[in-house]
Structure formats: C-alpha cells, structure tokens
Design a protein that fits this description.
Structural class: alpha/beta
Distance between the termini: 10 Å
CATH class: Alpha Beta
Oligomer: single chain
Strand content: 5-15%
Largest sheet: 8 strands, parallel, barrel
Order of helices and strands: EHEHEHEHEHEHHEHE
Number of strands: 8
CATH superfamily: Divalent-metal-dependent TIM barrel enzymes
CATH topology: TIM Barrel
Number of domains: 1
Shape: globular
Strand order of the largest sheet: 1-2-3-4-5-6-7-8
Number of helices: 8
Radius of gyration: 17 Å
CATH architecture: Alpha-Beta Barrel
Low-confidence stretches: none
Helix content: 25-40%
Length: about 270
C-alpha cells in the first residue's frame, strides 16, 4: 500500500468551516494526500473560470482528487441525483463532458452518479430505463480517460430507490446487459448500508469484486469512526484483505476541533 492513498477526505462534508476552495489545503495540512467532493458547483455547466479555480485549488494544495460526483441537483433540498430524473436528464447529459474534462485535468478516475429519487408523476419502470441509458452515457463520457462510474445505495431518503448493494448491482448489471457498458462499479458506503439494515459483512463477501470505491462514517449519527457502533476498522481490513486497493473516503460529520483525531497522522498518507 506504500504507493496508494489510504484515506481521502470528502471536502463537501468535512472542513466545512472553511470556504470550499480552502478545504483541499486544509486536508493536506492535516496529513492527507487525497480529497473527494460532491458536485462543487451551482450549475451542471459552470463557467471556465470556476473550473479553473477549482482545479487550481487542488493543484496548489498538492492533493489528488480521488472522487467527484456528477451534478446531483439540490442536495440540501432533498435531491439525490439526476440520472433517472426525466425533467433533469438534459442537465445531466450536459454535465457529463464537464465532469470528464475535470477528471482529465485532475487525474480523478472515480465519478459518483447518484441515481435520483422516484418522481411521483413518473412511471418507475420508465425512470429505470432512463437511468440505465444515462449511466451508459456517463460511462462512455469517462471511458476515454479510464474513468469508472460509481452507483451508490443511499439512506435517509425514502424516495431514493437504491437502498442495498443488491439494488445497485442490479442496476450495474442492467447497464452492462442492455448497453454494453462495463466501466461502472459499486460505491460501498458502510454507513448508508448499515443504516438501511444491510449485513455489511455478507455484502462484502458477496459483492467484493464489484466494489470500486469505499466510504465510511459511523452509526448512529454519521460521525467519525469510533463515535458509534460500527466495526469500521475491521471492515477496512477485510476490504484490503479481499483486494480493495483504492482509497477509503472519509464522509462523516463532526464538530470536533480536530475532525481526524481518531486516525493517527502516520496512517493518513501513503508516505
């Protein structure tokens, strides 16, 4: 693991006392080499100077962008992705090339495509057909840079239809079978899975070969590892033993003055 980034800081949920573009440098100062973010712009197609400022902040901080969400809509307002949302499909498709170009400039190769909530006025089957089509388009957009599209089970939003690893893998299989796209994988977030009642150990054994990215937070509370009841360190060890070599995304909430106190500094970086 000496040449790998062991942990990556989600700068959309951590270090939020700082302006967004200052958070990568704060993560670096805390000893991390990698950061990930939800979609960091107000629109699916931000202006060139906004993208330049974002890419520049990462470069200036000396951190690797390890994960980036496609535009997911108004997350604070309850949106959870545009992939299967007919009314926002054009926005999603306009966002694909922007994401790929950011990936090309930053070296990011993992892109989270939140599936989208069920819309009461829409046929769920039609939403799923659109979701598979849009995921295939997303996969094609990032394929040229060696990118992988991530599909994530999510908790806390009843209208979001992907609650389990099995739900997400079924979508991955559909995209492969119907559209031939294979550069997609499971985003294995142990917090969301646990809160939704999944047997994480069983999921790890069953779907280990489909896991393309890992995120952690403890439960209850979505706090730092050690603040709740989940065996996060054991799960990370099991994932590593099973062959997962990517970074572990720290996607938790905390008001601790040192949000990373649980993790010894020498374990935060590969160096």
């Amino acid at each position: 693991m000496t040449d790998q980034i062991p942990y990556t800081v989600n700068c959309s949920i951590l270090l939020t006392d700082l302006p967004l573009l200052e958070r990568p440098a704060a993560a670096k100062a805390a000893g991390f080499d990698g950061v990930e973010l939800w979609w960091p712009f107000a629109t699916p197609t931000p202006a060139a100077d906004e993208i330049d400022a974002f890419v520049g902040a990462l470069a200036d901080a000396g951190v690797q962008l390890t994960g980036l969400n496609f535009d997911a809509g108004n997350m604070p307002g309850g949106d959870r992705g545009l992939i299967s949302w007919p009314e926002r499909s054009a926005d999603l498709r306009a966002n694909l090339d922007v994401v790929a170009r950011i990936g090309e400039r930053t070296g990011c190769r993992a892109f989270n495509a939140l599936y989208g909530n069920r819309i009461e006025s829409e046929d769920p089957a039609a939403q799923d057909a659109l979701g598979a089509e849009n995921l295939a388009l997303a996969a094609k957009a990032v394929e040229r840079i060696g990118g992988t599209v991530l599909v994530e089970p999510v908790s806390g939003t009843p209208a979001y239809p992907l609650k389990t690893s099995a739900d997400a893998v079924a979508v991955l299989d559909r995209v492969r079978d119907e559209h031939g796209a294979t550069n997609l994988g499971l985003l294995f977030d142990v917090y969301h899975l646990s809160v939704n009642g999944s047997d994480v150990d069983l999921d790890l054994k069953t779907y280990g070969d489909r896991i393309a990215h890992v995120q952690v937070a403890d439960a209850p509370g979505r706090g730092a590892p050690g603040s709740g009841d989940l065996p996060i360190q054991r799960w990370i060890g099991d994932l590593r033993a099973a062959g997962y070599a990517g970074p572990v995304g720290l996607e938790y909430k905390t008001t601790d003055p040192d949000p990373f106190a649980w993790l010894p500094r020498e374990q935060r970086s590969a160096r």
